[in-house]
């Protein structure tokens, strides 16, 4: 039985490829694909340095740096860690309860979970900000099992005794999930990329054309909530969130509540991190304010203390407000834009709402696959015949 | 009516739990807690304090279940309240894993902890050397906070505290009518119980705030218990070993074994080492007796010998001891009540 391997090779490196493929690599069934049309030099410009932008750069590098040579990847952003939306997120891997038929997104969520789980055994897991944490999803009335029940570890219904611990909630689930803290994960990703030659530019990009004119072959649009500034998108809206970060190291479980009357994230949640606990429960659609609001603070704090009385003794460290890039579904697709005589290849990867960290790897891999389509077409402006 | 004077000997988790039970339930008694060592210098202080039981061979199962259940429910109420951080009592979830499938897959205490279930195959993948596991939520009770909190409750209930080294129970008979002996390993000399022996335990405290679950090997020798400010990793179970200094070989062994279960431990900063001598005994001694002291028959209630299960059984055995004190009160000759 053979393992099938495709080897993309070009005239320039065919000799070296032959050597690599001789025994002992057999018995692999190797197909040499003469890729005369593969571009030998490509410049990829990623706009956005949140988790989506950085992870997409990583996936493209992983999958194509040995196929396209040289592959130049540049990341342009108006803000970098620790000031991105990804940095403010608590970092709990958990999709919305129900995927409303969007099985594609559930698959990307699963890929991300499995990927993060495999990172746990890496010696770099702590630097990556990845660790396991268990907790409670609480509902005010019986609800169908969530879309992630078979993805997380040890999923089960809550026992009577557990429900008694949370008055006002009569149904829910317990499971072990993963945490991926943006404040550690983003710097780790940037370091990973930097070591492999990816360069970063602190600059606000005003148009796709601007980058195309400087010679970018493919543009990856990971501009999150401000994507509308590059290309109007009526489906993209800010979902404002506010959180309070407190010092409460005796808390070791996350607690997410769900209300049938409130929208997701507008119900209290408490998520312990590696150092501080994130307390939240605000979701305001179409509110663009990134300022902390004292009414919101009061609402968050009072409902959280009701949920977890011991919070009364917690030292409040800081408040933070951020804008989730909310969209009916993630925009992850190619677009070929005609600008005069030139064609601009764009891959959109934005609109991940409150589940960017949860879905990032699956989306990044898909974006890389779309990039691969462009590579294989050989229609990049610098393709050599 | 002159109040009956009760003295509780020992300021560990057993002594203070028992003292609080008595002082709160018997307001007409004057209760004094007397000990040489107080927190943070007791055996209880170094214990990780995870609620988790073992089976004693000679105690009726109903009584053991009661001990565990009452202790658990008592501490659960504290963990759920706003007093949780001050008392050092919190909820903790995690896994107990076994290399070989144990004979008893569902131990007696499984019905009293929260959410007890067998681990799934995907959960066990992280532990390739282990073939079976149990997942549950239990309580962690950190005595360095819990003992001062108990003392606060004790004083509030009118209790008095005295720091004193006791060489013999005879020193107490002129000041107290009932003696409650919670002297742990000290019972060996204080009441001459040669069935008590030390079980040496060494632990390390490491800084690993990203660890949120406990992991315990079913053999009891390797465990990782995340606490409020540090993670306790251990351990050792050396019977008859009286050494109180940390052993370098033990430290190395603990770090190796714990890193085997949780690789990130090898990256954790070691904050401190600690050694405690568990008051080992075949069964805990929770019973009353009349002791001949200087010509008098003095009622003594014993509550000691809990081994490595002191925190786990403290409240349940304290309630039993309270019951025994009540019996002593009923049986006392009338002149004590004048």
Automatic annotation (TrEMBL), chain A:
Q: Which PROSITE patterns match?
A: DAO
Sites binding FAD sit at 85-86, 90-92, 223, 353-358
Instruction: State the UniProt keywords alphabetically.
Output: Cell projection, Cytoplasm, FAD, Flavoprotein, Oxidoreductase, Peroxisome, Phosphoprotein, S-nitrosylation, Secreted, Synapse
* Any one Gene Ontology cellular component term annotated for this protein: presynaptic active zone
Enzyme Commission number(s): 1.4.3.3
Q: Which Pfam family, giving just one, matches this sequence? A: DAO
**Which co-factor is required?**
FAD
Give GO MF terms, alphabetically.
D-amino-acid oxidase activity; FAD binding
Annotated residues that bind D-dopa are located at 94, 258, 269, 324, 354
Catalytic activity, per the record?
Answer: D-methionine + O2 + H2O = 4-methylsulfanyl-2-oxobutanoate + H2O2 + NH4(+); D-valine + O2 + H2O = 3-methyl-2-oxobutanoate + H2O2 + NH4(+); D-leucine + O2 + H2O = 4-methyl-2-oxopentanoate + H2O2 + NH4(+); D-proline + O2 = 1-pyrroline-2-carboxylate + H2O2
Query: Is Flavoprotein among this UniProt entry's keywords?
Result: yes
Q: Where in the cell is it found?
A: Cytoplasm, Cytosol; Peroxisome matrix; Presynaptic active zone; Secreted
GO BP terms in the entry? D-alanine catabolic process; D-serine catabolic process; L-proline catabolic process
What the entry lists under SUPFAM superfamilies is as follows: FAD-linked reductases, C-terminal domain, Nucleotide-binding domain
In this chain the FAD dependent oxidoreductase domain maps to 43-370
Q: Which PANTHER family match?
A: D-AMINO ACID OXIDASE, D-AMINO-ACID OXIDASE
Q: Which family does it belong to?
A: Belongs to the DAMOX/DASOX family.
Any idea what this protein is called? D-amino-acid oxidase
What lineage, starting at the top, does this entry show? Eukaryota, Metazoa, Chordata, Craniata, Vertebrata
From TrEMBL, chain B:
Q: Which Pfam families match?
A: DAO (PF01266)
Binding residues annotated for D-dopa, in chain numbering:
223, 278, 308
Task: Classify the source by domain of life.
Answer: Eukaryota
Q: Which EC number(s) are documented for this chain?
A: 1.4.3.1
Q: Which UniProt keywords apply?
A: FAD, Flavoprotein, Oxidoreductase, Peroxisome
Main localization of the protein? other
Q: Which GO terms describe its cellular component?
A: peroxisomal matrix
Query: What PANTHER family would the database entry show?
Result: D-AMINO ACID OXIDASE, D-ASPARTATE OXIDASE
Name the UniProt record assigns to this protein = D-aspartate oxidase
């Amino acid at each position: 039985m053979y393992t099938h391997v495709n080897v993309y090779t070009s005239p320039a490196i065919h000799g070296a490829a032959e050597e690599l493929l001789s025994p002992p690599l057999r018995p692999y069934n190797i197909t040499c694909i003469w890729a005369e049309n593969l571009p030998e030099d490509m410049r990829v410009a990623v706009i956005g340095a949140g988790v989506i932008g950085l992870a997409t750069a990583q996936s493209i590098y992983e999958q194509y740096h040995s196929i396209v040579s040289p592959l130049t990847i540049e990341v342009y952003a108006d803000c970098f860690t620790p000031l991105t939306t990804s940095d403010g997120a608590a970092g709990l891997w958990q999709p919305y309860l129900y995927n409303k038929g969007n099985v594609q997104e559930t698959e990307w969520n699963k890929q991300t979970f499995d990927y993060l789980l495999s990172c746990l055994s890496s010696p770099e897991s702590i630097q990556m900000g990845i660790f396991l944490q268990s907790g409670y999803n609480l509902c005010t009335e019986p609800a169908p099992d969530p879309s992630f029940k078979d993805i997380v570890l040890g999923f089960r219904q809550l026992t009577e005794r557990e429900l008694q611990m949370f008055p006002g909630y009569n149904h829910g689930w317990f499971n072990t999930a993963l945490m991926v803290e943006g404040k550690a994960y983003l710097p780790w990703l940037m370091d990973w990329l930097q070591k492999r030659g990816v360069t970063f530019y602190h600059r606000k990009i005003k148009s796709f054309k601007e980058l195309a004119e400087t010679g970018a072959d493919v543009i990856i649009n990971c501009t999150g909530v401000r994507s509308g500034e590059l290309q109007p998108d009526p489906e993209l809206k800010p979902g404002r969130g506010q959180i309070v970060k407190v010092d409460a190291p005796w808390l070791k479980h996350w607690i997410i509540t769900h209300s049938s009357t409130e929208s997701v994230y507008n119900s209290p949640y408490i998520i312990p991190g590696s150092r501080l606990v994130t307390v939240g429960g605000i979701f305001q659609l179409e509110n663009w304010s990134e300022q902390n609001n004292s009414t919101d603070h009061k609402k968050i704090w009072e409902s959280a203390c009701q949920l977890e009385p011991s919070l009364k003794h917690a030292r409040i460290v800081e408040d933070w407000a951020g804008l989730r890039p909310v969209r009916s579904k993630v925009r992850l697709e190619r677009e070929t834009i005609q600008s005069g005589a030139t064609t601009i290849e764009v891959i959109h990867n934005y609109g991940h709402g409150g589940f960017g960290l949860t879905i990032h790897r699956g989306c990044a891999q898909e974006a890389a696959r779309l990039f691969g389509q462009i590579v294989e077409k050989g229609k990049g402006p610098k393709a050599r015949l | 009516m002159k109040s009956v004077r009760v003295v509780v000997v020992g300021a560990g988790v057993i002594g203070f739990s028992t003292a609080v039970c008595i002082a709160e339930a018997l307001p007409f008694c004057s209760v004094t807690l007397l000990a040489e060592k107080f927190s943070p210098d007791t055996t209880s202080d170094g214990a990780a304090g995870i609620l988790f039981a073992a089976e004693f061979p000679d105690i009726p199962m109903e009584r053991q279940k009661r001990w565990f259940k009452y202790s658990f429910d008592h501490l659960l109420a504290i963990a759920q309240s706003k007093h949780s951080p001050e008392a050092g009592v919190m909820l903790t979830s995690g896994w107990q894993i076994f290399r070989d499938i144990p004979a008893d897959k569902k131990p007696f205490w499984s019905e009293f902890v929260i959410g007890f279930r067998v681990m799934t195959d995907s959960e066990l993948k992280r532990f390739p050397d282990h073939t079976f596991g149990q997942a549950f939520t239990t309580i962690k009770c950190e005595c360095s906070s819990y003992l001062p909190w108990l003392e606060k409750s004790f004083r509030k209930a009118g209790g008095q505290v005295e720091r004193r080294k006791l060489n013999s129970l005879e020193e107490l008979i002129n000041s107290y009518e009932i003696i409650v002996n919670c002297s742990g390993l000290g019972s060996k000399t204080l009441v001459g119980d040669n069935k008590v022996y030390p079980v040496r335990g060494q632990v390390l405290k490491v800084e690993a705030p990203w660890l949120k679950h406990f992991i315990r090997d079913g053999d009891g020798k390797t465990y990782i218990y995340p606490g409020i400010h540090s993670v306790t990793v251990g351990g050792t179970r050396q019977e008859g070993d009286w050494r109180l200094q940390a052993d370098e070989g033990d430290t190395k062994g603990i770090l190796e074994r714990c890193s085997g279960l949780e690789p990130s431990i090898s990256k954790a900063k070691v904050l401190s080492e600690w050694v405690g001598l568990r008051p080992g005994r075949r069964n805990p001694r929770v019973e009353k007796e009349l002791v001949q002291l200087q010509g008098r028959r003095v009622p003594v209630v014993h509550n000691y010998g809990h081994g490595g299960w002191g925190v786990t059984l403290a409240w349940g055995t304290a309630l039993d001891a309270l019951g025994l004190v009540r019996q002593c009160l009923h049986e006392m000759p009338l002149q004590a009540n004048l």
